Amino acid sequence: MKSNVTLPAGEHVLRFTVVGSWLDIDYFTFVSGANATDPGPTGIAKDVRYDVQTEQVYRVYGLNGSFVGTVFAASASEAQSKVRSMVSEKGVYLIRAKNGMVHRFMVTK
Question: Could you tell me the pTM of the whole model?
Answer without folding.
Answer: 0.52
